[in-house]
Prior knowledge:
Layout: H1 16-22, H2 27-43, E1 48-52, H3 59-71, E2 80-84, H4 94-104, H5 114-122, H6 126-141, E3 145-150, H7 153-174, E4 178-184, H8 189-192, E5 203-206, H9 212-226, H10 229-235, H11 238-251, H12 255-261, H13 273-294, H14 297-307, E6 313-314, H15 315-322, H16 326-338, E7 342-347, E8 350-355, H17 358-365, H18 369-383, H19 386-389, H20 396-407, H21 421-427, H22 434-440, H23 443-454, H24 476-487, H25 491-501, H26 506-517, H27 536-551, H28 563-579, H29 583-598, H30 605-615, H31 622-629, H32 632-637, H33 641-664
Helix pairs in contact: 2-3, 4-5, 4-6, 5-6, 9-10, 9-11, 11-18, 13-17, 14-15, 15-16, 18-20, 20-22, 21-23, 22-24, 23-24, 24-25, 24-27, 25-26, 26-27, 27-28, 27-29, 28-30, 29-30, 30-31
Amino acid sequence: MMLTSPSRYSPWLVDRGLLRRLLVGRDELLQHLVDSLRDVAVGGGGRYELLVGPRGAGKSHLLALVHQALTTDPLAGKAFVVAALQEEESIASLEALLGRILNAMPTEAGLPNPQTLFQHLQQLPLAAVAEQAVALIKARLQGRSLIIFLENLDSLFVALGRTGQQSLRRLLQTEVNWSIMAGSRTASAAFLKESEPFFHTLNRRTLEPLSADQCREMLRRLAEHSGKADLESFLASPQGLARVKSLRTFTGGNPRAMALVFPYLTRESLDDLVESFYAFADELTPYFQEQLARLPPGQATLLEALAENWRPMTVKALAQVTFTPETSASTQLRRMQKDHLVRSIRVGRHTLYEVAEPLYRIARAMKRSDQAMPTLARFLRIWYACEDLLPLLEHLDLRELVLRALALPKDRKGQVADGSAAVAMFRAGRYRDMPDYFRRLDDSDRADELAALVRLVPGTSTIERSAFSSCSREAAPFVAGFMCILASGSEEEALRVVDEVLPTGSGPFVKWVWRGLGTESVTLEGLPSLERLPSTEAQVWLLVGTGLLGLAGRLRDSLPTGPPLVRQLLEVQRLLIQCQPALLDDAVTANSLLTMFGALLPESAAWFGSLMVAHAELGSSRPFLEALLVDEEVRAEALSAEERQILQKLKGARAKLREVFRVLAEPAAGQAGGGGGAATSPCTS
Length: 685
């Protein structure tokens, strides 16, 4: 019975018409194999073809199609006979191999049943089996040629040993009209070494990974067969091709791996993805364990080290992590490259190595608790856009995984750049996910995301990414929160941002600060109880941010501007220090930041710098701020050489931030910023 749906592991059982439709990129090879074997068999000769490729590369798929073409040929049974051994058959000797070939020959009218002859062989003394098996096979052929299909020829040769291989080679030299069509997972030394019996005997054809276009075509045909028109249409789009290119990087262009992930590309059942990946790792593990068991200890160690790294490694790096002498590691790697276990990449003067089968990384990573989650995250980030992943944050068991995926580097190493995750979070109103997300980003991606987020604020198109290059991991959530506040379209949304992006208790605290800035006299009325206040560090950032929002003019409809605003901000701060003495030291930091940042505003630099230097607690920062803001030339002379170096750094920071605050100080544009509403005041008294 033939299957009418694709099978990842048993292509021999699948309807041949379906197999043919799903064959991508190998039509010419298929036709060549069929024609070559047929022509030689009809002419009464022998030919030995070998397909080499890792597990899932498509060897069985191709063998099944070659077998179908030959068994349905008009001359099949007349000029030649086809015998196909099953992949799962365990063969440990030449006698067993010959017996299985006899058993696999087709039943023909007028000839003894091959299964009956096989049972007869099993009753004979072992010493007589090989000779008798050959005689029975020749009797059934009656002068016709024989084409034998074999899977896993590398494993068979290991089982036969050198003596068994020599006996098989002599047999094929005698029976000149016997052909072999075989598959092998590796280019075994038995095929490559000049001293081995089968050196230069087999026509080796390595199955290369599918290209990105071929992967897309395979997935498209699967979608067509499955009736998934939406997925088929998506795959035909430029975005679909970009995703497939990234997916190919992850799977190595392995056809079976592409078939594995296909059921999950509809974005309908992502919750099943974790279970599927673990099942796939279970299926792959025995193969790679068997492969490792064959290797010398030194090679196995190097292969494991490469599998644990998702980027190519130099010989020196590999030698260090495996405690192997560099010369020995280099020699072993060259041997492993010849055996198709690793591949090399030339980068300038350096040669880097990586595993030849990317699936080994998956199999190994999914068996290790510290690597399974990052591996799954890589797949999620490669295939799914930010907006597709955000709904999964609702699943507590997937939240960690999805946040990892969102925070992976974008548009690097073949991964998809599908926009900013932070912007997607803002537009979806998922403010509470931003702090964890920003803490996971590296410095470069953090600057990219903040630069994307600031574009939501009207009039910020001229702000450059470099303005955010120095933003620390700790400060990034606060900066992101203030950008979201500026871009939000209502007081309700602004307070949601405060509550969900900034630390616990920030909402009531910020509302109290805003109210204090908007009135003539500030009181403790409405201030949350001390145990409900954010940490003093968080209060510092909230004070700085709130003050800057007022100075930038974004709250001008409800707050005073100019010197009254600064004096009121300092009054709010002094009142806080009265009830929280521990805030005094942190308030010095807040004032220093406010002085430095606030003086960047074009229309307020002079009066603001003077006012803060005259009235605010600035601690040890005062000399630098005076030199920077009040009388630079005179004050700088009083600084030490080390202090002048610090001053130059402050000037550099000021230059980077000047453009940001110049833009923020401009009047609001009055329209939505990238999905938010009008940039109206989020503050009321």
